[in-house]
Amino acid sequence: MENQTHRVVIIGCGFAGLAAAQELRSAPVDVTVIDRTNHHLFQPLLYQVATGILSEGDIAPPIREVLRRQRNARVLLGDVVGIDVETRTVAVDRFGSKQTVSYDSLIVATGATQSYFGQDSFARYAPGMKTIDDALELRGRMFGAFEMAEGESDPAKRKVWLTFAVVGAGPTGVELAGQLAELAKRGLQENFRAIDPSMVRVVLIEAGPTLLPMFREPLRVRAEKDLRKIGVELMLNSKVTGVDATGVELLPTNGTLWRLETRTKIWAAGVQASPLGRMVANATGAKVDRAGRVEVAPDCSLPARPEIFVVGDMMSLSHLPGVAQVAMQSGRHASKTITRRLEGLQPLPFKYFDKGTLATIARFRAIGEIGPFNASGFVGWLIWLFIHLAFMTGFRNRIAAVANWGWAFIGRTRRQRTITYQQVVARQAVGRNSMFRNEP
Ligand SMILES: Cc1cc2nc3c(=O)[nH]c(=O)nc-3n(C[C@H](O)[C@H](O)[C@H](O)COP(=O)(O)OP(=O)(O)OC[C@H]3O[C@@H](n4cnc5c(N)ncnc54)[C@H](O)[C@@H]3O)c2cc1C
């Protein structure tokens, strides 16, 4: 006999997809969650994996474990490579074998990827930080640079190994630059014999006139002061025009092109929606914005296909930012809309509740905007700590994170410093995301 239960397929189990799945926990539906990784990733703490504070397991619990008690949900590991809106099926590539999954309602929540503003060749030398693979590769490159510097006898070459360039002074770039500076000044003391890690240069490069543009002026000023205090060099109004193995080319506004010699470059400058956004838009006639985000109706569904929802970082609605809270709330809203429809009720428009914005600068220093209130310094950091603990998935992960934070912030060591050769070279070998390479 045919199964009459309404089938909800959720593509992507990040903040939006997981919230959507959990919202359906008591609904009379069958939920299939498809993700290309086996874990739900807490992206805001990726920089701590890269800089050796947390282990990858602390911020990426297995999706199966998270959803183990939700009896109406099943999990499928695979890369979604096609959506047929006529037959209402999703094509999944499971490491070479193809599988088709049918839906009655579809929630697309595949997030965003790094944007190099059309200069994709930069990626080889300046990886971004979106996945566990990225964070481990960066960890390998950063700690590897200290190792190379230690064995280098030429002072000029050693200097190039000890110069780190972070491109993009949004929250990710600021957090990473701050942690790198702190790693060099505190975390690696007495570890080396030939080099002094405190000689490290951390250069934070930003094309725009300010760092952290989403924050109010006094908080930006405070963040800049704190960064400079811990030794980060801030280069504003400087556009990166070239990246290669040993440096970056910089074009300052009203200046002339020059070159910063550096072996380790990290790209934190821009994002674009997952390629599935354009795929869904092409199939349904929906519009996409410049960042590839899909314009949705007020209830987060597609105007021409109300059974399809696009949520989280892929969604373009009322200029909402690409942040975790928007993702979680829009994911939940899509699921609530599905339940309402099943109950014969009209959908409601999505209303975002802004709980505030935070960014850490370094140990015991953060800035935050909560409604009309500004927080900075140690108070800001305590709020940051509390919020991140509250939103991390899994009790055991919280305990592990607190222990690792204790080692790194109260003590001085970074316990998660294991690096492997594969972390650094594997991306070039396997050609990550190659299945999307030929897309328009
Ligand atoms: C380094 C970093 C720091 C950040 N810091 C903050 C912060 O401090 N505060 C904040 O609010 N926000 C922060 N963000 C933004 C926040 O993490 C995102 O807004 C949020 O993750 C978006 O959720 P999402 O569910 O839309 O996408 P994601 O969380 O990116 O999830 C997308 C999921 O889809 C899966 N997927 C992708 N493509 C496919 C496919 N074809 N088939 C199957 N599965 C697929 C991925 O594996 C992933 O699990 C940060 C982001 C980054 C990268």
Written overview of the protein:
This protein is an alpha/beta fold and 440 residues long. The chain folds into 2 domains: 6-36 and 78-114 and 272-342, FAD/NAD(P)-binding domain (3-Layer(bba) Sandwich); 120-269 and 356-423, FAD/NAD(P)-binding domain. Helices cover 33% and strands 25% of the residues. The protein is built from 13 helices and 23 strands. A hairpin with a 2-residue loop joins strand 21 (357-362) and strand 22 (365-370). 45% of the residues are buried. Residues 432-440 have low confidence and may be disordered. Bound molecules: flavin-adenine dinucleotide (FAD). Flavin-adenine dinucleotide binds at residues 11-17, 34-37, 41, 43-44, 46-47, 79-80, 109-111, 129-130, 171-172, 274, 276, 312-313, 322-325, 327.
Global geometry: globular
CATH class designation of the largest domain: Alpha Beta
From the coordinates shown, what is the CATH architecture of the largest domain? Answer: 3-Layer(bba) Sandwich
Counting DSSP H or I runs of 4 or more residues, the number of helices is 13
Low-confidence stretches: 432-440
The assigned structural class equals: alpha/beta
Write the layout of secondary structure elements.
Blueprint: E1 6-11, H1 15-23, E2 29-35, H2 46-50, H3 56-59, H4 63-66, E3 73-77, E4 79-84, E5 89-94, E6 97-102, E7 105-108, E8 112-114, H5 132-150, H6 155-161, E9 163-167, H7 171-187, E10 201-205, H8 217-229, E11 232-235, E12 238-244, E13 247-252, E14 258-261, E15 264-267, E16 271-273, H9 276-284, E17 294-295, E18 301-302, E19 305-310, E20 315-316, H10 324-342, E21 357-362, E22 365-370, E23 373-376, H11 377-391, H12 395-410, H13 421-430
Parallel strand pairs: 1-2, 1-7, 2-3, 7-19, 9-10, 9-15, 10-11, 17-20
Antiparallel strand pairs: 4-5, 5-6, 8-16, 12-13, 13-14, 18-19, 21-22, 22-23
Helix pairs in contact: 1-10, 5-6, 5-13
The protein binds flavin-adenine dinucleotide.
